[in-house]
Amino acid sequence: MAEKQTAGRDNLGDFAPKFAELNDDVLFGEVWSREDQLSARDRSLITVASLLTQGVPQLEAHMKIAKQHGVTKDEMVELITHLAFYTGWPKAWSAFGLAKEIYKD
């Protein structure tokens, strides 16, 4: 089961409480907990792929979550290599920089 998320409330709870609630309770609560339909590991792969194509800062956090969910270094390298041709070489280079740091151990 997915770990209870509090990043929304921790970072935006005072400023945007409804958004924080939706982030923590709906997205990371209800959606990520539906492991009978799609495992957390698979959700992580999909999420990393989506964020990589967008080139957004949340990619780093989700790569770390993917590693926690069992995505291996080799799988992450393959995901980035595959998407380089669909999303763009510069985004892949940036993603490799993050992955290299996250999977350095």
From TrEMBL:
GO MF annotation: an example: peroxiredoxin activity
Record-annotated Carboxymuconolactone decarboxylase-like domain positions: 17-101
Entry protein name: Gamma-carboxymuconolactone decarboxylase subunit-like protein
Protein source organism: Levilactobacillus acidifarinae DSM 19394 = JCM 15949
